[in-house]
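name: query_chain
kind: protein
chains: 1
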Amino acid sequence: MSDEHSLRKLLARVHERLNSSANVDPGKRASLQKVMQDIDQRLHARQGESTSAHVPRLEALAVQFEAEHPALAQLLRQLGALLGQAGI
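structure:
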């Protein structure tokens, strides 16, 4: 499986998890939706900026979600690791 395919699959899982979690703080939800949208746009457009630039933002969000949404935090860390490895 290609890195890009793995990224898209993991992005879909994060979106699903976020959408199924009704009790997510609105500010955290908005922050996560923004970074997910940015990554998705970079993958679709293949712009010059690397998606790995989002890794620190994903880690910061994972820390925020850790206590109340550990599964979502784990997905964010997986996504950050994959972005770092892929260098897309």
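note: Helices lie at 3-20, 26-45, 55-65, 70-86.
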